[in-house]
């Protein structure tokens, strides 16, 4: 038990810090190494480790990643980013449009893939317009996180929570869609207020704003954005759109296993005469899939020790009942900013009793981990992606800059979500 606990703690230390301190082992590497170490030391048998992996969640996530990848290879994300960023509107209106697009796309497609595909082009196009890219990138990230909370297919943690609690697509929609939609105008209001008078590069002063970490890189990105024409493959986009609508319809109208629906959609899109399947699969986040599979094994090994059950009893005696939606909402929100939203959901789902109030628990878990993930950069994978890709394009978003906008956005959205959960 001591060795299992030690490995478990080391894995989640890596989840919190982004890597194992002192080693070049990132979150995915830590989860995989931890799972292998637990099997090698006999803490969990290979068969038990395999059984611990929720193939339904992994299968659905993989299938929907392929669906989202179809929009990447068709040029849809790049085309959308370019069309939105070049709209002849004022910066506050452009911010509102971008928030709406981010919320919509992330609710229908995996939010992390949307952020990966659109962030570099948004940086380049805002710079090409002479705009300060920071407020647009932050709002885009915030909207992707909260918007994705509205549907079962919006993010990996939603899929894991839905599978673990036995939530249907329609049931999930009923308890999360409205607060997800209401979060978008909140994000617009706060970001627009905080960056009033600082929309353009010429008006941006001081180290706090500092949009350009590398002027040469930023200028080159802007030049590329205005020179390169984005090619949209209309047929492939329509094909991906039809398949996506079919997936949503099947989720809503049928009782077919959700993982089989997603995998069936992926198989349809992978069969193509012009686009190689390897190009499609290259946009699937294999690291995230390995991370989730590794954590399933690590958490499964820990469950065999009986320690999680003891900890849950101790929390109840201290007045913290995780099967109370508000308590779960607050604990999930706090935990997601320590270890990340996907690991937080995976830790919490096994200790929940969904009988009788699965919808309320699902809303509490999804909204708590989704809305709180805008607090700091490391609260979500989307935040990390935006900051790192922006830096690659020559735009620096510091930890403090992210938090100055993220803290008020998170607090306002969390208050909204708490009020909604109390009414369920």
Q: Which keywords apply here?
A:
424 residues; 21 helices; mainly alpha
- What number is the mean pLDDT? 86
Which oligomeric state applies?
single chain
Total helices: the number is 21
Segments where pLDDT lies below 50 for 5+ residues?
205-213
What pattern of helices and strands is seen along the backbone? HHHHHHHHHHHHHHHHHHHHH
Distance between the ends? 40 Å
Characterize the main sheet.
none
Q: What does the overall shape look like?
A: globular
Percent helix range: over 70%
Structural category: mainly alpha
Number of strands: 0
Strand content: under 5%
Task: Describe it.
Helices cover 73% and strands 0% of the residues. The protein contains 21 helices and no strands. It has helices spanning 2-17, 27-40, 46-52, 55-73, 76-85, 91-108, 111-128, 133-147, 156-165, 169-194, 215-227, 234-253, 258-270, 277-281, 286-303, 307-317, 325-339, 341-348, 358-372, 381-392, 399-423.
In short:
This protein has 424 residues and is mainly α.
Strand and helix layout:
Blueprint: H1 2-17, H2 27-40, H3 46-52, H4 55-73, H5 76-85, H6 91-108, H7 111-128, H8 133-147, H9 156-165, H10 169-194, H11 215-227, H12 234-253, H13 258-270, H14 277-281, H15 286-303, H16 307-317, H17 325-339, H18 341-348, H19 358-372, H20 381-392, H21 399-423
């Amino acid at each position: 038990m001591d060795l299992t606990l030690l490995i478990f703690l080391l894995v989640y230390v890596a989840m919190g810090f982004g890597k194992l301190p002192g080693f070049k082992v990132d979150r995915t590497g830590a989860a995989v190494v931890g799972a292998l170490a637990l099997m090698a030391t006999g803490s969990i048998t290979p068969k038990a480790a395999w059984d611990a992996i929720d193939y339904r969640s992994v299968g659905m996530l993989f299938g929907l990643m392929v669906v989202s990848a179809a929009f990447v290879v068709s040029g849809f994300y790049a085309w959308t980013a370019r069309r939105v960023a070049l709209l002849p509107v004022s910066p506050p209106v452009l911010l509102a449009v971008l928030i709406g697009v981010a919320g919509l796309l992330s609710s229908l497609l995996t939010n992390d893939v949307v952020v990966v595909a659109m962030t570099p082009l948004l940086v380049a196009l805002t710079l090409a317009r002479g705009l300060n890219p920071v407020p647009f990138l932050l709002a885009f990230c915030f909207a992707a996180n909260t918007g994705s909370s509205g549907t079962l297919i919006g993010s990996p943690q939603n899929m894991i929570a839905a599978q673990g609690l036995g939530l249907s697509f329609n049931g999930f929609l009923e308890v999360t869609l409205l607060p997800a939609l209401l979060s978008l105008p909140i994000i617009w209001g706060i970001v627009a207020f905080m960056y009033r008078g600082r929309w353009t590069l010429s008006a941006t002063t001081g180290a706090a704003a500092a949009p350009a970490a590398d002027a040469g890189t930023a200028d080159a990105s802007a030049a590329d954005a205005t020179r390169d024409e984005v090619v949209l493959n209309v047929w492939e986009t329509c094909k991906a759109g039809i398949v996506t609508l079919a997936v949503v319809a099947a989720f809503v109208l049928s009782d077919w296993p959700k993982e089989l629906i997603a995998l069936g959609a992926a198989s349809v899109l992978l069969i193509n005469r012009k686009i190689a399947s390897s190009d499609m699969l290259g946009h699937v986040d294999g690291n995230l899939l390995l991370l989730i599979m590794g954590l399933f094994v690590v958490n499964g090994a820990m469950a065999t020790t009986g320690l999680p059950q003891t900890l849950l009893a101790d929390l109840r005696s201290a007045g913290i009942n995780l099967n109370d939606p508000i308590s779960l909402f607050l604990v999930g929100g706090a935990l997601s900013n320590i270890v990340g939203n996907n690991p937080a959901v995976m830790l919490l789902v096994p200790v929940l009793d969904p009988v009788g109030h699965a919808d309320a628990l699902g809303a509490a878990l999804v909204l708590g981990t989704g809305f709180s993930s805008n607090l700091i950069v490391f609260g979500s994978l989307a935040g990390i992606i935006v900051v790192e890709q922006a830096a690659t394009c020559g735009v620096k978003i510091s930890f403090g800059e992210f938090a100055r906008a993220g803290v008020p956005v998170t607090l306002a959205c969390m208050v909204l979500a708490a009020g909604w959960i109390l009414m369920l």
